[in-house]
Design brief:
Blueprint (H helix, E strand, L loop, with lengths): L7 H12 L3 H13 L19 H9 L8 H11 L2 H6 L5 H27 L6 H13 L26 E6 L13 E5 L12 E5 L11 H7 L2 H22 L2 E7 L9 H4 L14 E3 L5 E3 L14 H8 L16 E2 L11 E6 L12 H15 L9 H10 L8 H18 L4 E11 L5 E11 L4 E6 L9 H23 L3 E8 L4 E5 L4
Parallel strand pairs: 1-4, 7-10, 11-12
Antiparallel strand pairs: 2-3, 5-6, 8-13, 9-10, 10-11, 12-13
Helix pairs in contact: 4-6, 12-13, 13-14
Length: 523
């Protein structure tokens, strides 16, 4: 409602939840309001004779003028505080545990907004309240909008899919003997050609083979269809998806991972897809041995049902099995780490190059929006080698970021051509890769999430570029080496870990300042 003053459905939801009104009540109220001449979009927000405005809607309307200067997370937190939402959700139930969960959900919603902003920053995209709402809808569709973890001791029972992005001290995996089901007889999207950024739906279709045999599961002709190359492709895709899901589940445990199995069927298609029989130690073994020879402590035990559970503390002690803690029990680092927050580390400039000419920038420009606009232009330059970037494309990008009045599209276009010419002359046989997402595990256990602006693939190794919109003169570029050397080193380490190829050079591209500088690898 704050974002869209015409969203009267949101108004109805707010009134219904805040005042516990049934649809028959608020719908009749809206009809009376319209009959008295009220504005169709301002029901409950603007009073008419005999029909006062709702306090919550008045508060929301009062916040709307500040929207242009609020980041999505700030807008959400301000809305929660102004409307006293914590107090309102606490009134919905006398159950203390439910109240704690709902309050934790409010905090988790603010945390999701923060995560959305960090994704926009790493992807060099503008964050907005509208974008946050759409992103939250996508999270809900993918079933990633998990309930919060209130500060109470509890056991969470969830699906393997829903565990993505979460972490617990102890994780117990169930249903590992399940069969793998492919999507041969379901709806899926197919693409017959290489993805075209200018026509993303080209040569794409919806494929659906309906199951024609009703409730019958075993049909001879279905077995013959399952032996076709098409079916084999779907089967292989399902196996790969099963492996990815197992990776998600097995990496949720911080201290201890438990694989629960049935004695009648210890394994099945799903677990067997890993090709790792050493994961299932035999009874009496105290470790599992990895293919590289490393041993990890393990235990194997059988759980037998008790004939008579009994009563008292002794029986309770027999039914409970807990695990010893491992490692430091103090404060832990956040799971995710952004390379841009790596901090200042002394860096050494190896080389400074003039590339093109400095782009004149008018006073009053939003530096962040300007940097994102130029970054988008550079990324689009390498998006499709068969479709070169035009000045019209640059004009549209600058206009989209509201910076077209502060710098010339012609100057930006000339700088992009100068950059491409410099790359071609210095690394003539290199293959460019733009906007490469990177995720890797750091030595301290944190997960690095970032996006590399440009990688050049050469016969000797990788050349790594990061774009910065700094306007510093050449004699001040040493400051940039100190500011960004740690970020470049983290990117380089991740690329080397994933590809197995060395990063031989690290560069900062400064399109506004008209240059580039090479920075020495740390260590």
């Amino acid at each position: 409602r704050l974002n869209d003053p015409t969203d009267t459905l949101a108004t109805a939801e707010i009134v219904s939840l805040a005042d516990s009104l049934e649809p028959e009540v608020w719908l009749a109220d809206r009809l009376r309001y319209l009959a008295q001449g009220g504005n169709v979009d301002l029901w409950c927000e603007q009073a008419v004779e005999g029909h006062p405005a709702h306090p919550l809607l008045e508060s929301i309307a009062a916040l709307r003028p500040a929207m242009p200067v609020l980041a999505p997370q700030e807008a959400l937190a301000t809305l929660i505080a102004t409307c006293s939402l914590a107090e309102k959700v606490a009134r919905w139930t006398p159950d203390g545990a439910r109240v704690r969960l709902r309050l934790a959900n409010l905090e988790a919603l603010v945390a999701l907004a923060e995560h959305y902003e960090s994704l926009c920053r790493s992807g060099q995209q503008a964050a907005s309240v509208s974008g946050l709402i759409l992103w939250l809808d996508e999270m809900a569709e993918q079933k990633l909008d998990m309930l919060a973890e209130p500060a109470v001791d509890a056991v969470r029972v969830i699906t393997h899919h829903s565990a993505k992005g979460l972490e617990w001290p102890v994780v117990i995996l169930m249903d590992l003997a399940k069969d793998i089901k492919d999507r041969l007889w379901s709806i899926c999207a197919e693409s017959g050609a290489r993805f075209d950024v200018h026509n993303p739906l080209a040569d794409r279709s919806i494929r659906y083979w309906p199951w024609p045999f009703g409730l019958q599961k075993k049909v001879a002709i279905a077995d013959r269809i399952a032996d076709t190359p098409v079916a084999a492709g779907f089967r292989q895709a399902a196996v790969e998806e099963a492996k990815r899901l197992l990776y998600v589940s097995m990496t949720r445990a911080r201290d201890l991972l438990v694989l629960a199995r049935s004695s009648r069927r210890p394994s099945g298609e799903w677990l067997d897809s890993l090709g790792a029989p050493w994961l299932l130690p035999a009874e009496g073994c105290d470790a599992v041995e990895l293919p590289n020879g490393e041993r990890i402590s393990a235990d194997h035990w059988m759980l037998e049902p008790l004939e008579e559970p009994g009563n008292g503390e002794a029986a309770a002690a027999q039914l409970v099995h807990w695990f010893e803690g491992h490692g430091d029990s103090g404060l832990r680092l956040p799971l995710s780490f952004s390379p841009s927050s790596a901090g200042l580390v002394p860096g050494t400039v190896l080389e400074k190059c003039c590339v093109g000419e400095r782009i004149p920038v008018a006073a009053g420009a939003d530096v962040r929006a300007l940097g994102e606009a130029i970054h988008a232009c550079i990324g689009m330059t390498f998006a499709d080698p068969d479709t070169p970037l035009s000045e019209t494309d640059v004009i549209n990008i600058l206009s989209g970021f509201s910076v077209s009045e502060y710098l010339s599209a012609t100057a930006v276009m000339q700088q992009l051509k100068a950059f491409q010419g410099w790359l071609s002359s210095r690394w003539p046989d290199a293959r460019p890769h733009a906007e490469i997402p990177l995720q890797s595990i750091l030595p301290n256990g944190q997960v690095l999430n970032g996006r590399i602006d440009l990688l050049l693939e050469t016969s000797s190794g990788w050349v790594l570029f990061d774009h910065k919109s700094s306007q510093l003169a050449m004699d001040q570029w040493g400051k940039l080496a100190n500011e960004y050397s740690a970020q470049l080193e983290l990117y380089a380490q991740g690329v080397e870990m994933v590809s197995g190829k060395k990063v031989i050079e690290q560069w900062l591209l400064l399109p506004v300042a008209g240059g580039a500088l090479s920075i020495e690898r740390l260590g």
